């Protein structure tokens, strides 16, 4: 440091810049920063390798972060046709008759909520079955509330289980999106679900403007206290097992125009989330999460509303190799990354594991 710029001498003494008796401002600033660093961080390993913040069990417990609990978990509930063959490909996929036993087990374990999906019937171009009185979704909501009134019920509001073409939206004769009809379908489904006892409705069609319409319809029907939780659905193959089981894969084409592009999801998810908050969303769901933890963290940074992280069917299939303990580590990571609630097909297995650990 020719000419004496800044820095500490061999014995930790401030070397002056120019005038030997008076250190210049940068010298002093650097010196003070150095001292502060020394006071707040260890800059070398301890000679014995012991970190007192971790060495004793009681101190580890003192400083631990929030642990995953069953109350952090929700389970997808997929109601299948009555004649569905046993041994379903996904946990929580049961015919109507299987709901009481399934949901009672989950409630007993402390699982906080279910997200209800129904295998569509009477599928046609207008999604007639979606609004049929007492349809499979209405029956599902009633069955859950009957056996477990304190289990939060979120319902999917989307056309794809109910249209014969498998698209989430209704179409015009020319094959475009019939916007008004789709808004009306989503609004009517939401009110129907709320009337049946749903606590939250979760539109999945990703149609701009639809969240405002759904919120207004719920308010007008006297359901001010029913939540609207739009999906932020990133295009992925990790919906595969769900789509196969529920027969919701579009017969032609894909959903790309209505889902978030993976390569842009870090930015577009934030834009979409902000729009939906403006339209009246009070919470959000992000799906999938295994391949979008970066998006989850960014969304958490940007938003203060509750965020549900939906670990989708393809994730569940892929993550089987982790075993339950590894799965619990994964779900814990999602909580740490910012999820207020984790929706997972592994909810029951994880809750059992957590309960066994407490005993
Ligand atoms: N809109 C329907 C819907 N709702 C949830 C999923 C995927 C859920 C899962 O994989 O667990 C899908 C599939 C899709 O739209 O492509
Ligand atoms: Zn859909």
TrEMBL record:
Q: What is this protein called?
A: Delta-aminolevulinic acid dehydratase
Pathway(s) where this gene product acts:
Porphyrin-containing compound metabolism; protoporphyrin-IX biosynthesis; coproporphyrinogen-III from 5-aminolevulinate: step 1/4
- Name the enzyme group at the top EC level: lyase
EC number, UniProt record = 4.2.1.24
Tell me which PANTHER family the record gives. Answer: DELTA-AMINOLEVULINIC ACID DEHYDRATASE
Q: Which reaction does it catalyse?
A: 2 5-aminolevulinate = porphobilinogen + 2 H2O + H(+)
Q: Which Pfam families match?
A: ALAD
Q: Does the keyword rRNA-binding apply?
A: no
SUPFAM superfamilies, A to Z: Aldolase (SSF51569)
State the organism of origin. Streptomyces chryseus
- State the similarity comment: Belongs to the ALAD family.
Entry keywords, A to Z: Heme biosynthesis, Lyase, Porphyrin biosynthesis
Outline the subunit composition. Homooctamer.
């Amino acid at each position: 440091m020719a000419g004496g710029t800044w820095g500490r001498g061999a014995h930790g003494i401030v070397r002056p810049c120019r005038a030997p008796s008076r250190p210049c401002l940068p010298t002093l600033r650097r010196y003070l920063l150095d001292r502060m660093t020394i006071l707040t961080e260890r800059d070398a390993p301890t000679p014995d390798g012991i970190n007192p913040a971790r060495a004793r069990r009681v101190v580890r417990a003192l400083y631990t972060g929030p642990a995953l609990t069953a109350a952090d978990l929700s389970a997808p509930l997929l109601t299948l046709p009555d004649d569905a063959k046993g041994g379903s490909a996904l946990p929580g996929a049961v015919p109507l008759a299987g709901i009481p036993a399934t949901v009672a087990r989950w409630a007993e374990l402390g699982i906080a909520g279910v997200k209800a999906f129904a295998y569509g019937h009477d599928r046609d171009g207008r999604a007639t079955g979606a609004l049929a009185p007492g349809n499979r979704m209405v029956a599902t909501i009633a069955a859950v509330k009957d056996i477990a009134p304190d289990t939060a019920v979120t319902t999917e509001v989307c056309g794809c289980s109910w249209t014969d073409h498998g698209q989430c939206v209704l179409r015009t004769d020319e094959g475009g999106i019939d916007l008004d009809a789709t808004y009306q379908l989503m609004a009517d489904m939401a009110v129907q679900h709320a009337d049946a006892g749903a606590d939250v409705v979760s539109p999945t069609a990703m149609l701009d403007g639809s969240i405002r319409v759904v919120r207004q319809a719920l308010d007008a029907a006297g359901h001010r206290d029913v939540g609207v939780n739009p999906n932020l659905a990133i295009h992925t193959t990790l919906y595969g097992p769900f789509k196969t089981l529920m027969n919701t894969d579009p017969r032609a084409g894909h959903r790309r125009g209505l889902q978030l592009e993976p390569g842009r999801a870090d930015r577009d998810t934030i834009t979409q989330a902000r729009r939906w908050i403006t339209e009246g969303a009070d919470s959000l769901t992000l799906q999938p999460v295994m391949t979008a933890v970066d998006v989850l963290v960014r969304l958490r940074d940007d938003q203060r509303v509750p965020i549900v992280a939906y670990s989708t069917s393809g994730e569940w299939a892929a993550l089987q190799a982790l075993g339950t303990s590894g799965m619990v580590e994964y779900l814990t990571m999602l909580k740490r990354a910012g999820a207020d609630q984790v929706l997972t097909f592994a909810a029951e297995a994880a809750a059992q594991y957590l309960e066994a650990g407490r005993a």
